């Protein structure tokens, strides 16, 4: 029983990261209608900034991480205002292709600057927590507990922000109907930039929390981005709460499959289970059905 609870908690840890990634992807999709394929690499590049400040600049860890998160926000804003806005009048396909271009540019820059080497990144907190439970013990690193706390605070904070602040309400209105938002006097361009900035910051948070386990290298966020997209589809691509549920569920499924069936097939089994769930509810667990006028 203790082992099973341990696996559930580890699955929720991974699921928290999946949910953070999925939140950022869905936020941009709901607001601008485009899937950002550069999302993971934007977080990767930001954590390299933290690594450089920490290793070469001698900055304390908290300052390096703070600078990386601020850099990520403005990287997202710059990508939207400097690149995506230029092709927005063309089509969403053009914007999609542009995100692939950003992906390749950031990967190329990271290879040019930091090479392909795997680089270590410290845990934000150290130590291990041992909890006595029934006839056994549950062991969690303090870093794992931090992931739970950070993910929960960000998720709750975002939902409160979208529900009770003017900018949050403006983002929701723009996501619901861009044309109506313009007629209401909302500065849609500013909202797009804010959504991209917040989204990229979420990617940087996920990359920073994952870096001590994955190490830092140019493709460190590839698996997390795939899992985030999977979580978004599972929970409902038009539902922010659904992405959280989808991410947590995906994390638990993968952990249980990896521990009790096969670690090599954990993603394959998880995708099969998700496929079955989506056959029952194609719009996702909390997604809404699309209605077309004829």
Provide a descriptive summary of the structure in words.
The protein has helices at 2-32, 39-55, 61-87, 92-114, 142-164, 166-176, 178-183, 188-214, 222-235, 240-260, 266-280, and strands at residues 128-133, 136-141. The chain is mostly helical and 294 residues long. The protein has one domain. A two-stranded antiparallel ribbon has the order 1-2. Strand 1 (128-133) and strand 2 (136-141) form a beta hairpin. Helix 1 packs antiparallel against helix 10 and helix 3 runs antiparallel to helix 4 (92-114). The radius of gyration is 19 Å and the shape is globular.
Offer a quick outline of the entry.
This protein is mainly alpha-helical and 294 residues long.
Largest sheet: 2 strands, antiparallel
Proportion in helices = over 70%
As a percent range, the share of strand residues is under 5%
Number of domains: 1
Order of helices and strands: HHHHEEHHHHHHH
Number of helical stretches of at least 4 residues:
11
Would you report the number of β strands?
A: 2
Q: Using only CA atoms, what is the Rg?
A: 19 Å
Shape: globular
Which class do the helix and strand fractions yield?
Answer: mainly alpha
Order of strands, main sheet, comes to: 1-2
Query: Which blocks of ≥5 consecutive residues have pLDDT under 50?
Result: none
Mean pLDDT: 87
**Cα distance spanning the termini:** 54 Å
Please supply descriptive tags for the structure shown above.
two-stranded antiparallel sheet, mainly alpha, single chain, 294 residues, 11 helices, globular
């Amino acid at each position: 029983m203790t082992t099973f609870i341990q696996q559930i908690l580890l699955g929720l840890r991974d699921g928290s990261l999946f949910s953070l990634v999925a939140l950022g992807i869905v936020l941009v999709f709901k607001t601008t209608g485009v899937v950002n394929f550069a999302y993971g690499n934007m977080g990767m590049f930001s954590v390299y900034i933290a690594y450089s400040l920490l290793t070469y600049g001698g900055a304390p860890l908290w300052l390096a991480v703070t600078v990386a998160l601020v850099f990520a926000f403005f990287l997202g804003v710059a990508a939207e205002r400097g690149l995506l806005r230029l092709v927005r009048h063309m089509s969403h396909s053009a914007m999609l292709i542009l995100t692939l271009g950003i992906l390749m540019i950031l990967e190329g820059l990271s290879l040019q600057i930091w090479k392909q080497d795997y680089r270590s990144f410290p845990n934000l907190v150290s130590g291990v927590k041992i909890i006595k439970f029934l006839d056994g013990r549950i062991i969690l690193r303090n870093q794992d507990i931090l992931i739970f706390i950070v993910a929960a605070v960000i998720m709750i904070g975002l939902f409160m922000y979208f529900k009770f602040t003017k900018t949050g309400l403006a983002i929701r209105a723009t996501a619901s109907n861009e044309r109506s938002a313009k007629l209401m006097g909302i500065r849609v361009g500013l909202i797009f930039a804010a959504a991209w900035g917040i989204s990229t910051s979420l990617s940087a948070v996920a990359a920073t929390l994952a870096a001590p386990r994955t190490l830092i290298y140019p493709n460190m966020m590839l698996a997390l981005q795939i899992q985030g997209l999977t979580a978004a589809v599972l929970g409902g691509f038009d539902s922010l709460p659904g992405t959280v549920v989808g991410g947590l569920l995906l994390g638990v499924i993968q952990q249980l499959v990896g521990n009790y069936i096969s670690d090599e097939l954990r993603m394959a089994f998880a995708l099969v289970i998700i496929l079955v769930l989506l056959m029952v509810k194609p719009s996702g667990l909390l997604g809404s059905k699309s209605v077309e006028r004829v």
